Amino acid sequence: MKSIIRDISLAPAGYDKINWVKAHMPILNTLEARFKAHQPFAGKKVAICLHLEAKTAYMALVIQAGGAEVAVAGSNPLSTQDDVVAALVEEGVTAFATHDCSPEEYHDYIRRLAEFEPDLYIDDGGDFTQLLHDAYEGKLDHMIGGCEETTTGIVRLQAMARESALKVPMVAVNNAQMKHFFDNRYGTGESVWNAIMRATNLVVAGTTCVVIGYGWCGKGVAMRAKGLGARVIVTEVDPIKAIEAMMDGFRVMPLVEAAPLGDVFVTVTGNRHVIDRDAFEQMKNQAICCNAGHFDVEINKDALADMAKDYRRVKPNIDAYSLAGGRKIYLLAEGRLVNLAAGDGHPAEIMDLTFGLQVLSLNSLVENRPAPGLYPVSPAIDREVAEIKLQALGVDIDQLTEGQAAYLNSWSIND
């Protein structure tokens, strides 16, 4: 299949980005050497539908080093980096991706990825999985399986599994400890505020930040905002998470009450229209709204546009909506994932953990060939990724003695 990309001449800049992250991803370094020797993906086609920036590109090359034929498409139109995609194509990876593509182009690209007829795939958010089941169900019988990266995608997979609609084996990578403890919390927290600060060039200290959703990603966003000197308000629909946010030191209230207090609003729920007209009506002049959930549905952009007399782009990744009475509300990155659309995504060291889980889980699917269904990441894989990381950091930890291990696995206190 022929690639669709912006410009192959951009490849040298893409190589620079890939080489930079490669130097800071020791887990993938280790697995690349292992895969080159053992070729676990020999003869297999692997499709990747993720945010196409340097860290994803290096993972694609690690999978390719294991013998796979690899094709990629972007999971978000604004997160694709054209120079990185060009470098991948020069390395023999097939790509269907251009930055800021139209919705029609986006859907065409992932259709082409499906027509690549992969044996294995990695998805981000479930769009590719849904397409395969809606339009290519007849080709799923030969598929070995796939991995899902995000909370949003796993929610969709769980619904499919409940309805017996999931026709391929899928690994819930997001639910692994080495994923959500670090990627969702530390990665999201740091990358979201990096992107907000890059886009706005405004100070965080002394502002009031409203974090909408207190899952693992919301915890990270709130923690980093507090560390930067912001006052933090959390809004939630889950009473248990609300209490957790209170005990972590944050104010908790309904969004409509937080709306007139906030300077920056960050959605981290995976749900639709969590910032809606009632909140926009209460926001102060020059309030900033952005999304760190998966899709661009968390902020009701249609309602905001309907309320606005006009809107215009005042700075790259910042649209100003002018409302009646002279108020302006700023929307970052068109309501898409702000950390990837207005930034470079999670730090390399964080994505090294997640992508280590991804490639080892793909390898496990090849070796074990499970039946269709939703599966957790093997605890052995979770532990292996942690051990490789500690080894790379030069950190040793204690080990249980035989007696201690036996005690922990016994029901009798006298053993």
Rg computed from alpha carbons, rounded to a whole number of angstroms = 22 Å
Structural class: alpha/beta
What is the approximate shape? Answer: globular
What percentage of amino acids are in beta strands?
Answer: 15-25%
Name the poorly predicted regions.
none
Give a structural overview.
The model has no long low-confidence stretch (mean pLDDT 96). By secondary structure, the chain is α/β, with parallel strands linked by helices. Helix content is 45%, strand content 17%. Helix 12 links the parallel strand 10 (264-267) and strand 11. It is globular. It has helices at 11-22, 26-38, 54-65, 82-90, 103-115, 127-135, 151-162, 177-200, 216-227, 239-247, 255-258, 277-280, 301-307, 338-341, 348-368, 379-393, 402-408, and strands at residues 45-50, 69-74, 94-96, 120-123, 145-148, 169-172, 208-212, 231-235, 251-252, 264-267, 287-291, 308-315, 318-323, 328-332, 373-376.
